[in-house]
Amino acid sequence: MNTEFQGKNIVLIGFMGAGKTSLGKTVSKMLGIPYLDTDNLIEDAEGMTVSEIFARKGEAYFRQKETALLGDLSKREGSYVLSVGGGLPLREENRPLLHETGCVIYLKVGIDTLQRRLEKDTKRPLLHQGEGTLREKISRILKAREPLYMEAADVVIVNDHKPFRLAAQEIADLYCASAEG
Q1: Structural domain for 137, as ranges
Q2: Looking at residue 67, which CATH number applies to its domain?
Q3: Of these four, 21, 122, 125, 159, which has the most CB atoms within 10 Å of its CB?
């Protein structure tokens, strides 16, 4: 895995509930740079939530919007912290765009932690499709996604039993070390 930044931005990837949004917002404040979220940007552009987009226009449409947005963000000037939807790294064409955008940090979280974080979540369309318990769905989706997250990542940070502030500081330190180098 390449551990050198290929851009000046931080790109957070990982499963839903991994902490991309909360850590992304915190790190952006620590570093004094903007925070962006692909899901929020798409929701704003479409005038609908991700769940509504999935229901009305389908997952394929949403995934195309993610790829187009990522292409635009990879050309954006200035430093920022970017959180991407959990499915964005799955498309083969997105992985090179992620690297063009910045240092890709995979926030790795175990199934027990994900289940605890997601058990009351009603906004994630993929958790409400298909058969099985929440744990079975998380396990099935994560098993398919994890190799692609690992392939896309420059750095892996385990965000399971680590204090929130420590995880945020680890990300900020990576950014600062790259800015100095």
Answers
A1: 10-176
A2: 3.40.50.300
A3: 159
pLDDT digit string, tens, across residues 53-76: 999 999 899 999 999 999 999 999
Residues 109-124 pLDDT 10s: 999 998 888 887 666 6
**What does the pLDDT look like over 8-45, one tens digit per residue?**
799 999 998 899 999 999 999 999 999 999 999 999 99
Please indicate, yes or no, if residue 14 is contained in any of the structural domains: yes
> What is the phi/psi pair of residue 59, to 5°?
-65, -40
Long-range contact set of residues 50-59: C-beta below 8 Å, sequence gap at least 24: 50/85, 50/123, 50/125, 51/123, 51/124, 51/125, 54/125, 55/125, 59/125
Residue 4 lies in a domain: no
Count up the domains in the chain and report the number.
Answer: 1
Tokens of 25: 């917002």
